[in-house]
TrEMBL record:
NCBIfam families: yfiA
Domain of life: Bacteria
Name this protein carries in UniProt: RaiA ribosome-associated inhibitor A
Pfam families for the chain: Ribosomal_S30AE (PF02482)
InterPro entries in alphabetical order: RHF-like, RHF/RaiA
Length: 96
């Protein structure tokens, strides 16, 4: 199981959102061998939630950003973006 560090700025911490994030982002482990760190931050700016994800895995750094009024939509967007990045990297690595 991947350990994810969450940071909340200008909004209350939500255990439900963290659990949802853990479930969604666990799919990343299919594409990478060793996750060194995974940090997710949520911040409210002008009524919108901005989410950032920094993933350090297999000696590579991946970043994703998403914004929405809904925290779960933010997490879904992060999942889509990070899976796209690690998937492309995984395909490149396996085609060598």
């Amino acid at each position: 199981m991947m350990k994810i560090n969450y940071t909340w700025k200008h909004l209350d911490r939500s255990e439900a959102a963290e659990t949802y994030g853990n479930e969604k982002l666990e799919r990343v482990t299919k594409y990478v061998g060793k996750v060194l760190s995974c940090d997710v931050s949520f911040e409210t700016i002008h009524g919108e939630i901005h989410a950032n994800l920094k993933l350090n895995a297999d000696g590579n750094h991946f970043n994703a950003h998403n914004e929405s009024k809904d925290i779960y939509a933010c997490i879904d967007g992060l999942e889509d973006k990070i899976l796209s990045q690690v998937g492309k990297h995984h395909d490149k690595k396996s085609s060598r």
